Amino acid sequence: MNRSSHDSGITKVEIYTWKFCPFCIRAKALLNEKGVKFIEYLIDGDNDARTKMAERAGGLRTVPQIFINEKSIGGCDDLYELERDNKLNELIGKTN
């Protein structure tokens, strides 16, 4: 499992991705746009890592899978829905 870290302060954001997955790229772009630091687990071809991700995500095996403070929030569409509903800032501890 390849892991790249970004320090997020109080809020811990983790994302399981595949390198060329367009949904993963889109989800990371939104997090970066909002200035969110995150831990990325690049799991291309790593079945053990994908199994661990699925266990954490309630059986979901699609990527990306995003966790905020250890809680699964789902994938890219779920992340963008939180943003549209003005709920993402609260989850990531952003006041603006």
What does this structure look like?
The protein has one domain: Glutaredoxin, CATH 3.40.30. The protein contains 4 helices and 5 strands; from the N terminus they run ββαβαββαα. It is globular and about 40 Å long. It has 96 residues and is α+β, with helices and mostly antiparallel strands. The N terminus is likely disordered. α1 packs parallel to α3. It has a 5-stranded mixed beta sheet, sandwiched between helices. 38% of the residues lie in helices and 21% in strands.
Number of helices: 4
* Count of discrete structural domains: 1
- Can you say what the CATH homologous superfamily is? Glutaredoxin
What are the low-pLDDT stretches, counting only 5+ consecutive residues below 50? 1-9
Tell me, briefly, the overall form.
Answer: globular
Q: Per CATH, which architecture?
A: 3-Layer(aba) Sandwich
- What is the number of E strands? 5
- Content of β-strand: 15-25%
Mean pLDDT: 91
Estimated helix fraction:
25-40%
Task: Offer a quick outline of the entry.
With 96 residues, this protein is α+β, with helices and mostly antiparallel strands.
What is the secondary structure topology, with strand pairs?
Blueprint: E1 2-4, E2 13-17, H1 22-33, E3 39-42, H2 47-56, E4 65-68, E5 71-74, H3 76-84, H4 88-92
Helix pairs in contact: 1-3
